Please model this.
Amino acid sequence: MLRNSKEMLGVKRNPGKVTVLGSNTETKQAEIIAGIILKMNQHERLETAVLYRTNNEAQRLISTLIKYKIKFTLTDKSYNFFNLEVCRDIAAYFRLTENPCCRESFIRILNKPPRYISKTKIGKINSSSFSRNWFSFLMELPDMKPEQLKLIHKFEKKVRKIKLMPPEKALEYILKSIGYMECIKEHQMDILNELREICENFSTITEFLNHIDDYRYEISNEEPGVVLSTIHGVKGLE
Model:
């Protein structure tokens, strides 16, 4: 193929500086980035962007910026790691340990893995006009079969047991002893592995759930700061 010869010239006349910093984990990499930003003044931070290949790679960085109270702006505000299906399911299990009356969490994971609770019975939970322990609510329904009662009773005991565990162990218990692993699809394994590493940073389930709430608040916050974006997301922008 014939091409016209052309000379590519940079617009800026002053030479730039590229520094390569190595790290052996994503957590350490995020800590290095946060350390650099912490040395900047507010004006410099507003002139700074951190770019990554895919949104999934942003989670560790966002968590670290939140830890150091560094303000940031996401170009893709629709993305939230903790809104992914696996994360929402595990968070629902965790929330039930603290509040067995959480209707949304109970319904979300009631049949994950399958416990053969029909849509009709789930509808009764939804239509209840008051909040209560939903494990007890199901077991008190007159049309529950003996095997269903046994499953729900066993389910409640295991959820109570999770409450005493740190998030890392609680996650493994949910996967193996409760059987949630059978709900994981192959393409979700990377998400699960990322969630495992996140859980290691917290000593209690309450701390982990508070982090999720802080994460959701910060990524929806419009306060200006360091720009976070995929490389694709800044194409054509100065």
Summary: The mean pLDDT is 90.
